[in-house]
Specification:
Blueprint lengths: L1 H39 L3 H19 E4 L3 E7 L14 E4 L5 E7 L3 E5 L14 E4 L5 E12 L4 H7 L4 H18 L4 H4 L4 H18 L2 E13 L1 H80 L3 H10 L5 E3 L11 H8 L6 E12 L3 E2 L3 E8 L6
Antiparallel strand pairs: 1-3, 2-4, 5-7, 6-7, 7-8, 9-10, 10-11, 10-12
């Protein structure tokens, strides 16, 4: 760095000048006493060393290098106002030695924190902001601001605050605005979703205040809000009661859902039984219809058969009663009842049986019922016909 090298050369030059003066003075004193020592101060060697040291010092003082994270305010006796209107930005600059000097200010982002924790804030010890809410509750707020000096307003900051801007502006401004804004909210609002509104309002108010004084606010952080012990205990009891209420509501909801599930299950079972009964009834009705249709078809076939041979009905009647016939009373003048073709064929050979059925009154006796009402039973006579 050029300015640092010049500063080093100026220091070396002054050291060399002092050393030369001491050596020459001692040599002159040894050579001629006090008078000779005084003449040494007017020697060309001391004058040359002095000129070199002064030149290097003035040259070093005239060159100023401003770091990228800094800005320089020039205090000048040559300016009407005592300072240059524009600050010096980063780079190498020339000033008038002895007539001007440069005061450096940082323009990087800085953080100022006020916290309850002793070693967390910018100041040692508990440094949170205590404020009263709208309903009179005492709250303690931990907060931080991220800010920097506006490079274009560095001269203004120097005039208004100098290096005291943290203690004389940042800190008092934060405490005053936060306390004023907190008084517009109740404790319940600060402890609820409106805490975000409080933080946004404080950020906007501080941003305007910083801008009016040559600072740029990056962000305001409301880090923590603490209440008094009495209010904190009341909030805790309220939250416990709320949790118990929610638990009871949850249990009631679960019971309601179980009851609804049981009701739905019973309804589904009832619907299933009703559907099964309906299906069974439909099946029975279908079976009855099919049975009636089958009986109708059978009756139609019987009617057709009877239409072709009327004696078939008598034959079927005899066929039905034959297996249950045990006793038969016949007139003594009727020698034979229903001679069978097989018995006749066994005795006389092949015959052509021509049956003539005539009703003959008989009395039937069943095995368990005794004498049955006389019933007309057709009898048959057969006429043998010789074969071919």
């Amino acid at each position: 760095m050029i300015d640092q090298m010049l500063n080093l050369l100026a220091v070396i030059a002054w050291f060399w000048f002092v050393l030369v003066v001491i050596l020459l003075v001692l040599r002159g004193y040894q050579a001629g006493g006090m008078r000779s020592m005084l003449r040494v101060f007017l020697s060309w060697r001391i004058i040359v060393a002095l000129v070199i040291a002064i030149t290097l010092s003035l040259l070093s003082a005239s060159l100023v290098f401003i770091e990228p994270q800094e800005v320089g305010v020039v205090i000048s006796v040559l300016s009407p106002n005592g300072y240059r209107e524009q600050p010096l930005r980063s780079g190498l600059h020339v000033v008038v030695p002895l007539a001007e000097r440069v005061v450096r200010y940082p323009i990087y982002w800085q953080t100022y924190t006020m916290s309850t924790e002793p070693f967390e804030g910018s100041k040692q010890g508990a440094d949170s902001i205590s404020a009263r809410t709208e309903d009179g509750q005492l709250v303690y707020l931990d907060s931080s601001v991220i800010y920097r000096i506006d490079a274009n307003e560095a001269v203004r900051v120097h005039i208004d605050w100098q290096k005291r801007y943290i203690d004389d502006f940042i800190r008092p401004m934060m405490r005053g605005i936060i306390r004023t804004e907190v008084s517009q909210f109740t404790a319940d609002e600060i402890n609820s979703s409106k805490r975000k509104n409080l933080e946004e309002n404080l950020g906007e108010l501080l941003r305007n205040a910083f801008s009016d004084n040559g600072f740029v606010l990056g962000r305001f952080l409301l880090r923590n809000i603490a209440f008094s012990d009495q209010y904190a205990n009341a909030i805790e009891m309220k939250q416990v009661a709320e949790q118990e209420r929610q638990q009871r509501e949850y249990q009631a909801e679960q019971m309601r859902k179980l009851a609804e599930g049981e009701r739905d299950r019973l309804k589904i079972e009832a619907d299933g039984r009703a559907a099964a009964i309906e299906i069974e009834a439909a099946a029975q009705a279908t079976a009855i219809v099919l049975k009636a249709q089958a009986e109708q078809s059978a009756l139609n076939l019987i009617r057709e058969a009877l239409a072709g041979d009327a004696q078939l009905l008598t034959y079927r009647y005899i066929e039905k009663i034959a297996p249950n016939l045990r006793v038969m009373l016949l007139p003594n003048n009727n020698p034979l009842l229903l001679p069978l073709p097989d018995m006749l064929s066994d005795q006389t050979g092949e015959f052509e049986l021509t049956q003539t059925l005539t009703p003959t009154p008989t009395s039937l006796i069943s095995p368990g019922a005794g004498l049955v009402t006389p019933t007309t039973i057709p009898t048959a006579t057969s006429t043998p016909v010789p074969g071919p």
